[in-house]
Amino acid sequence: FRNNGWHAPHSTATRTLLNPANGAPIATVTESDAADVDAAVQSAEAAFKKGSWWKLPPASRADVLDRVAQGIKQRQQQLALLETANSGKPLAETLWDMDDCAGTFSYYASLVRGMPPHDSSGTPVALPDPNFTGTVKHIPYGVVGAIVPWNYPLLMASWKLAPILAGGNSVVIKPSELSPLSLCVLADVLVEAGLPEGVVSVVFGGGEPGSRLVSHPLVQRVTFTGSLVTGQKVMKSCADEMKTVSLELGGKSPLVLFDDVAIADAVEWALFGCFWTNSQICSATSRLLVQRTMWDAFLPALVKATNAIPIGDPLCEALKGKKGTMGPLVSHGQLKRVDEMVQAALQSGQVRLLAGGGPVGNDTAGFPHSHPDGSYYRPTILEVLDRNVTIWKEEVFGPVLCVYPFDSEVEAVELANDSKYGLGAAVMTKSRDRLVRMRDALRAGVVWLNCSQPCFCHLPWGGLKMSGMGRDLGEQAVKSFMETKTIVEYTSGAPWGWYAAL
After folding, report:
1. 165, 349, 384, 468: least CB-packed within 10 angstroms?
2. What is the pLDDT of residues 193-202, one digit of tens each?
């Protein structure tokens, strides 16, 4: 997709997309090659040079973003159904995602309305020398390359596109090769909203087009959400040309439960924090730290609630649109990866199985809403006996919740922060003083108090340590997609007088 239209690709390679709920083919997508990426970037560069987007008055750009939001709302049901079929997420969740997509574009439209026009003189800065004036302007980078993952296909695209466009840039975006379909619809929404030709291009496929996009000499800025391993490759590629890059990577987030919390509340947030989005979420609080004094009362309640989660085709009549259900993982490849990690942990003797522990497979009697060709995994709880076990330390990206006891607040902080990741962290307690202490002690980019996972486009999102660098969302996201230009003007009518001979 480029120049506001769909074009025959140079590449002939195709990928058949399967519905993870039943294994049935749902679409065939042509994967972009280097020539397709080049054409998309050239289109974006031409649009930027023309100034058809960034030179528009802020109110006009804001109107376009607002119309994008309206277009998403008008297609909410279509987009949610398409994303559920493509990714396996429950329909209640994808409908919620579409609301968030529209809200993200509306939020950035409101910010654009308060921005100065492109030809403004900038923000004046008082200088100590009266012979000079100083101003600062924020200008767009040019062409931005954006790569988004498969767990929140359209929401992650919205998180990238809205602030990138708010900053006046052109953009080439690549969805995951596993879940590109909803972004195809969004491309048409952008055209209908009045976005000028060439401002947004879409390329498809996996590693090859992604690598070409990141390394393309006309791409000035890169933003990536995905795995740590791929993020490291993206960062190394950007380093070669000193490109600014932001990375939102993996996580192994803790949820700390103190014994003054009601068991029912603790169970619900523990489930939501890990099993929401079929547990395929980088911020999942999959390390559950439970105060030992509530351990015996809490664990049976947690296991019972976990075993009661309905699993199956998110579009079957019994589950369609219902909250608190779980669909399939995105692919059989992901199913295999999750199960390998669980079985390795069990075989190590470093964990004890409390619930789940394997794929649903052909057990359609126990799980009547599933399908033998779907990629369903039983929600799993593992009691960790040795914290050196890999599954306690590494991201699973599947429905696996690891639990471990603690005795004191000091120990809880130490255990929670003992990770190479630092995306999210959560704590639940009725003590306000303890909440404040834990809030400040937890080393994470996002901290939840008495909850887990809620996210708002008004607030920055990103992690510490190996969970990445930079932030999506919030006001600062717009400036992160703009460069700073300093302007110094000599305003005195007198000669400078530095060289005596002049």
Report:
1. 349
2. 999 999 999 9
Q: How far is CA 458 from CA 79, 472, 476, in A?
A: 23, 10, 10
**DSSP assignments along 349-371, one per residue:** TSEEEEE--SB-TT-TTTSTB--
Token pair belonging to 335: 């199913």
485 token code pair = 């230009």
In angstroms, rounded to a whole number, what is the distance separating the alpha carbons of residues 283 and 395? 10
End-to-end CA, the chain: 59
Mean pLDDT of 470-499: 96
| Strand partners of residue 18 | 25
Tell me which residue of 358, 402, 412, 360 sits closest to 381, measured CA to CA.
402
Rounded Cα gap, residues 370 and 373, in angstroms: 9
Q: What is the arithmetic mean of pLDDT over 207-229?
A: 97
Q: How far apart are CA 244 and CA 235, in angstroms?
A: 9
Active site residues: 248, 282
Whole-number Cα distances in Å, 406 to 293, 412, 476: 9, 6, 37
Q: Computed from CA positions of residues 252, 206, 104, 145, in that sequence, does the dihedral angle turn out positive or negative?
A: positive
DSSP letter string over 394-415?
S---SSEEEEEEE-SHHHHHHH
pLDDT tens string 40-67: 999 999 999 999 999 999 999 999 999 9
Tens digit of pLDDT for each residue in 360-410?
A: 998 878 899 999 999 999 999 999 999 999 999 999 999 999 999 999 999
Q: Is the pTM of this model over 0.90?
A: yes
